[in-house]
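All the exercises in this workshop are built on plain-text protein records. Sequence and backbone structure share a record, each on its own labelled line. The question running through the whole workshop is how a given chain folds. The record below serves as our worked example for the rest of this section.
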Amino acid sequence: CSISDYECDEGFWRNDYGECVLDGADPEQPHGCRDGTEYEGRSGYRRIAQTQCTNGLDLMRPVQRLCGRAGGVHANAYVLDAPIADIQYFANSPHMVVRTDTGKVHVSLDEGSKWTVLPAPDYAEHTPTEFLSIIRHPYFEDYAYFVPRDGKTALYTDDEARTTRVLHLPSVPALHPPLRFHPEYPDWLLFMGKCTDPQCSAQGFVSRDHGLHWDTIHGALGPAGCAFLRTDRAHKPHRQSIACARHIDTGGDVVVSTDWFRTEHTLVSNATDFAIFGEFLLVSQDADDGRALTMHVSSDGHTSSVAQFPGDAHFNK
């Protein structure tokens, strides 16, 4: 007999390597089998009905299998209160968090085997229970932020959702994501909050002590809001460099400050938007009386150059 004379037995399936492996837990695993000990189980193969082979390869002999997870995949059911809206994993960790359509956040510390509701801080009263979004810190892997649906009290974790702490916001959120982060200092935060001017997309705030105190970044902001220019790849900008898209009725400017907006300078005037890609700040600028766009590039936040493209240097709107 050869491998072609066998098929997968009931409860087994053929993997990418052509092997018959268990589909889920082995129902024949002995009751009370301790993890790591062995038991004799089916091989996973059976001879096809049409074969008449004798001798040769025998794949039906019982095999030794490990008790516990090694004996198959274990499934545990946990019923959430509503469909899943967002799921976030902590890097290199079994911890994960899930937000449902109702805004409830659930936490698992063991890859989904067991779940609990997001823990509230022991020292705080009247903390939120429904959340608009979960924001993972892009540079500090243990941190995540839970932005409330209503009010100005958020929660955050700095230990992969084992516990939470209160973060007092200066306003209700306006842009997504409302929080912006620094690659070197987890206590430095930017927040994009709601402003009273209907022509304004957001009001900017900055904190250097993780929300204990917030300073207002004066001036209405456009849709891009503000961002730290330092990233894990952009090292040329000053550590305190912050870029903001100022909103003006007839357009806007991208301004940069290195002293928490005690002073600022205009990097690009008549700007329409900005974004940070890798180590570069890209700023789009109105050109040709508003009928086209010019792209400016800056690597340090102090100076910028017009990006050169093949053919026409402008993008038509």
Summary: The mean pLDDT is 88.
